[in-house]
Design a protein that fits this description.
alpha+beta
């Protein structure tokens, strides 16, 4: 097992720096050899005292963990996930968010092993795995498991929410965490530009179970990620019951001076759709209800932690034979107004994309990182660049940089436009609009199967100006959207294509 190359996972560091580098800098290319995807992951640089439970916890948000092998003397471990898909999601996620154990950054990459053959007699490992999966499926841990979970004495959790572009209210937190025990008190606040909360359970064991099951999970599809630690406090002192803090044991507390209760439009949005919001755990906690997303997108909710970050994305692992600035403009344009695209001259599998603001960049990153475009799983991270530079006058960069600042195809130019309410993750079902009256279902089926996919289902809306079309995979739908959004259907009517939340 020693022969595994010592390389960090994922993003080849330094690719971002090539923006604006001279064309002669080929010699600087980094060579990183990566093993092909495997459900066994190799984890390195673990702190000496890391426990198996802590290593398993890295994998839990992404799916079932089926085996673990720790190499104590080497500060390494092998973690086997239930499926290769879970392992790929995990590696993609940890390329954008560095995983830590005991505040030490660790490195994760695919292993050369396809499965782990460990000694079945290793009962302790099996016990830990069973313990963790019992807690994950909502069971209560037995006494030996509670030891394995390394008894934490505080019933108070400190919760930080990353990638927060939908509002997370006190009620949402209460709903999620009360699945693990009685929530007594919650205090929310913003610190270092991040939305945080302190949440007190009636019993430390519940706090442990909640941390184990929820740390690293997303409240909504691909965003609002929970980072959970134990607080040093063992008891919270709540003075007011309002939208910032609440003591559920003392309903008589005042609301406090000038503290409004939650904005009624947002409250209504959340309560109306409570069945779709925060369904069962585990898995992603649930996609956001459409109404709440619309309220957030329409700007009624101030989005936390977005000030001063850039609107430029670095996209890597692109299919360099196929990708063009136009295809990136169209796909990323689903989530914001793309201003400029630059495919890197010395590294044509990477591109910089400038959105009109940091919120749009975050939204595009959360929805498109890990999706397949032209057969390759793309990686999307925030770039440290503030803008994308255009080539100097008279310099031909072979059409790799394009300026789209004045494009008529921007979807979000009009404030409060309906498009804000129709932002959904990539899905196999596409929503078509602006369909000319004389175009039939057969015409559209033919058009979309020519884009290289299989049409599974089709449905016109009543007025026939709109329709839903379902492809056989998300990747085919992404391809069809890139090829056919703004397609001229004749009579100067251009087809509009976006991802749908519905299925047919």
């Amino acid at each position: 097992m020693d022969g595994i190359g010592d390389v960090a996972v994922g993003v080849k560091r330094g690719s971002d720096e090539l923006n604006g580098a001279s064309n002669g800098s080929d010699s600087k290319k980094l060579r990183v050899e990566e093993a092909p995807p495997s459900r066994v992951l190799h984890i390195r640089k673990l702190p000496n005292e890391a426990s198996e439970t802590e290593v398993i916890a890295l994998g839990l948000p992404f799916g079932k963990v089926t085996n673990i092998l720790t190499l104590k003397g080497k500060n390494q471990a092998f973690l086997e996930m239930g499926t290769e898909e879970a392992a790929i999601t995990m590696v993609n996620y940890y390329t954008t968010v560095t995983p830590h154990i005991r505040n030490v950054p660790v490195f994760i990459q695919y292993s050369n092993h396809k499965e782990l053959k460990t000694d079945a007699g290793n009962q302790r490992t099996q016990a830990v795995l069973q313990a963790v999966s019992a807690v994950q499926s909502g069971g209560s841990p037995s006494s030996d498991v509670q030891e394995a979970l390394a008894a934490a004495s505080s019933p108070v959790l400190r919760i930080i929410i990353d990638n927060m572009f939908y509002p997370v209210t006190l009620d949402v937190l209460q709903q999620i965490f009360s699945k693990f025990g009685t929530v007594m008190k919650i205090i929310t606040f913003t610190k270092n530009n991040q939305f945080q909360a302190l949440l007190q359970f009636s019993d430390p064991v519940n706090a442990q179970q909640a941390k184990l099951a929820l740390d690293g999970q997303n409240i909504y599809n691909s965003c609002c990620t929970l980072r959970i630690d134990f607080s040093k406090l063992v008891n919270l002192n709540v003075k007011y019951n309002n939208d910032k803090s609440r003591d559920y044991t003392r309903p008589e507390l005042p609301a406090g001076d000038g503290q409004p209760s939650i904005d009624p439009s947002v409250a209504a949005a959340f309560s109306k759709d409570s069945n779709s919001l925060l369904g069962k755990i585990p898995g992603a906690l649930n996609p956001l209800s459409a109404a709440a997303a619309a309220a957030a997108a329409a700007g009624r909710v101030a989005l936390a932690g977005q000030t001063g970050s850039s609107g430029v994305l670095l996209v890597s692992n692109l299919n360099e034979e196929m990708v063009t600035p136009q295809s990136l403009f169209t796909l990323f344009g689903v989530y914001g107004d793309v201003q400029r695209v630059k495919i890197l001259y010395n590294k044509k599998d990477s591109a910089l994309i400038q959105m009109s603001d940091a919120n749009q960049a975050q939204l595009a990153m959360s929805h498109l990182n890990g999706q397949k475009m032209y057969g390759k799983i793309i990686r999307v991270t925030l770039s440290k660049h503030q803008t994308v530079a255009l080539p100097r006058d008279g310099l031909d960069d072979q059409g790799l940089t394009k300026d789209y600042a004045n494009s008529p195809l921007h979807r979000f130019k009009k404030p409060g436009s309906k498009n804000f309410q129709n932002i959904f993750p990539p899905s196999a079902t596409l929503h078509l609009s602006n369909i000319p009256q004389d175009v039939t279902e057969d015409d559209l089926r033919l058009l979309f199967s020519n884009a290289g996919g299989t049409v599974k289902a089709f449905k016109f809306f009543q007025d026939r100006k709109m329709a839903l079309i379902q492809m056989s995979t998300v990747e085919e739908a992404i391809q069809a959207l890139i090829d056919l959004h703004n397609y001229n259907m004749g009579g100067n009517q251009h087809l509009r294509v976006s991802f749908s939340k519905s299925t047919i």
